[in-house]
Amino acid sequence: MRPDDILAALDPEQREVAEAVRGPVCVLAGAGTGKTRAITHRIAHAVRNGVVDAQGVLAVTFTTRAAGELRQRLRQLGAPGVQARTFHAAALRQLTYFWPRVIGGDPPRVIESKLPLLVDACRSLRKNHERSELRDIASEIEWAKVTQIGPEDYAEAAKKAGRTSPVPAEEVSRLYEMYETLRRDRHLVDFETILELTAAVMTEHREVAGEIRRQYRYFVVDEYQDVNPLQKLLLDTWLGGRDDLCVVGDPNQTIYSFTGATPRYLTGFSVEYPNATVIKLVRDYRSTPQVVSLANRVLDRARTPHKLALIAQRPDGPEPVFAEYDDETAEAEGVARAVRKLVTGGVPTREIAVLFRVNAQSEAYEQAFSKAGLPYVLRGADRFFERPEVRQAVVLLRGAARSAEPGDTLALTVHHILSGIGLTPEPPGGGKAREKWESLKALADLAEDLAAAGADLPAFVAELERRASEQHAPPVEGVTLASLHAAKGLEWDAVFLVGVTEGMLPIIYAETPEQIEEERRLLYVGVTRARAHLGVSWALARSPGGRRSRKPSRFLDGLTGRATQRSRTPAAADRRVVAAPISCRVCGKTLMAAAEQKLGRCAACPADYDEALLEALKAWRTGVSKKEKLPQWAVFTDVTLQAIAERAPVSEQDLLAIAGIGRVKLERYGEAVLELCRSTAHHTEGA
Fold it and tell me: So what does this thing catalyse (predicted)?
C-alpha cells in the first residue's frame, strides 16, 4: 500500500486528520463519524511517510477490545509495530519491566477487585456491610484515587463534589485508609495504583523516564472526554513537555463524570496547547437521517460546548417510534412484540438492543422475552470469556487441538465437544440454562464461520485465545439487554430506549445542572446507538393496576408532538404502533411458543405446505450434512425446514424473515434453498 492509498478512502475531514501528522491535534468526533478510521489512518500515514517509526507510537484507549481493534486495523494498514493499549496495560507493562531494576524484588501482584480487601478492612475495623454497600464503597475509593484525594481528605472532598456516600463519609475514609494499609502490606496494586506508581517511578528515576520517552514520542489518546486526573497525570509524565499528541473525543458523550472522568481536558485542549490543530468530524455514517435528526434535537437545549451537530450520510429510514404504556409489564411486552416484528422482517436478534438507565430495569424484559421465546443476552454481567461454560469449553477445545489429526473437521469436532457440556439442537426455555446455551451456541457459530474460511481446530483455539486477551466476544444470537452506560461504543440495527420517565432519565438523584446535563447526554448516547430502527417508550405506572403518576422525561419535550399528547392521554391506538402480537395464520390465536411463532401457526392447526418441497429440502439437507460432516440439525432444524416448506420463500429477504436463518446460513445455503423452492414450484405447476 502506497502512502497516498491510505488516504484515498477518507472523507475530507477524516483526510485532514490523517494529514495532520504532527501534534498537537484535537479531533472532536461525533457519534458514528469514523473516528477510529481517521486516527488509524493518521498513524499509518505518519509511519509510511517516515514521520515516526511504528515502535515509537503509543495509542491509548479505555478498553482492551478497543485497543485490539486499533491494532488489527493498523496491521491491515501496514503499521503492525504500533503499540495500542489501555492506560492500565501500558502502565503495568512499564512498571513490571522497570520494577526489578529501580525498586528490586518481584513486582506487586495486581488485584482486579477491591472487594476482598474491603472485606478484610471491615473485619479489622469491626464493621459489617452488605456486599452491595461494599461495591459502592469501592466505587468511592476509586473516585478518590483517580482524583488524587487521600483518605484524610475524602470526607471534605466528597461533600464539596456533591457525592452521596453509601455510608457516613468518615467511615468511608477509615475503610479507605485501612484498605490502602492492607494493600501495601500484602504487596498488591489495584488499577489506580498502577498508574500512580508508573508516574512516580518516572518522576523519581530520570533514567526510567528517559528510556520510556526515547521509546515513545508519538501519542494518540482515544475517548479523551473520559480521561480522569490520574490518567492525565500519567499522560503528561509520558509526554515530558513534548506536544506530539493527538486526542480524539466527543464532549456530547461525556457520561462518566461520576467516576472522576472530566471533559475539560478535551474542551480545553486548545487552551493547553494554543498552537493545536482542531478538526471536527460531523458526517454520521452509522445512522439514518431520521435517527440523526432526533439525536441533534436531543442536544438542542443542552448546555454542552461543541455540540457537534451531526450530518447524516445514509439513506432515509423509518421514523423513530414513541410509545406510552399503562405499566412496566405492558411496556416490556410491547417491546417484545416490536422485536418479534423486526425479527420476522429479517433483522437478526443480535442486531437489536433494549437499553435502560439502571440494570434493575432488565428483569421485566427478561421475563417478557422468555415468554415470547426470544433469545436475549445481558450485557454488563459476566464477561463472555470468564463465564464458567466458556472457560470449560476452551479447556476442552485446547486439549482436543493438541491431539487433532490432519483432516479433522473443525465444525463437527467443536459441535461434538460442546454437545457434551450442554449444547443441544434447540435452546432451553430461559434463565441460566438459556444463557449457558447461548454462550455455547456462540462458540459453535464462530467455529462454523472459521471452518468456512478454511481454519482447523488449532487455528480456532488460537483465535479464541486472541479474542479472550482482547475481550472480543463472538456475537451471541440474542437481543442485547444493557444499561445506557454499558452500551457506549456499541451499535445495533434497532434500539429500544425504555423507561424514559422523570426520575429514571434523568435519574432521581441527578440534582445539579451539571448532573442533569449528563443525563441528557446519556439519552443522546442511547439514540446514537441505533442505525435504522429506534423506539422510545415509557410507562405511567410500575405495576399493572398501579397509580399512573409517572411522566415522560423532560428530555422528550419538543421532540415530537405525539410525545406531549401521550403524556396526557394514554391512547391505546398509539401504543399499538410499537408492534402487533404474532397470530396464527389459520385460526388467528396469539402464538406464544417459539416453534409456533417460527411456523406462523398453532401446532394443532392444519399445515398448508408442499410435501414435495419438504421432502426435497430434507434430502438436500442429508446431502449437505454428509458432505460437510455436520449433524443435520446444524444445517437446518426440522422446524426451520417445515417453515421454509410452508412459506415457500422466493427471495433472500423471505428467507431471512424465517427465524433460525441468519446472514451466515443465508450466504452458505440460501441460493440452494431458493433454487429448490423455485424448481419444486415449477414442477408442481407443470403437473
Answer: Couples ATP hydrolysis with the unwinding of duplex DNA by translocating in the 3'-5' direction; ATP + H2O = ADP + phosphate + H(+)
The C-alpha cell 517509526 sits at 53
Residue 68 CB: number of other CB atoms within 10 A? 19
Q: What angle do CA 410, 411, 415 make, to 5 degrees?
A: 120
Which pTM does this prediction carry? Answer: 0.73
Contacts for 156 with CB less than 8 Å, ≥ 6 apart:
none
Annotated ligand binding at 400? The verdict is no
CB 482 within 8 A of CB 496: no
Contact 602, 596 (CB under 8 A): yes
Q: Beta 321-327 vs 530-541: how paired, if at all?
A: parallel
Distance CA 58, CA 235 (A): 11
Q: 50 labelled as ligand-binding?
A: no
Cell representation of residue 638 = 426440522
* Residue of 152, 192, 193 lying closest to 174 (CA atoms): 152
150 assigned binding-site residue: no
How many helices and strands (H and E) does the chain possess? Answer: 31, 16
Any known ligand binding at 268? no
Q: Is 105 annotated as a binding residue?
A: no
- DSSP character at residue 510: -
Question: Is 35 marked as binding a ligand?
Answer: yes
**What is the rounded distance in angstroms from the CA atom of residue 125 to the CA atom of residue 566?**
54
**Interval 360-402: pLDDT, tens:** 888 889 889 888 888 888 876 556 787 888 889 999 998 888 8
627 is in an annotated binding site: no
**402-426 pLDDT tens trace:** 877 766 678 888 988 898 888 888 7
pLDDT at residue number 55: 93
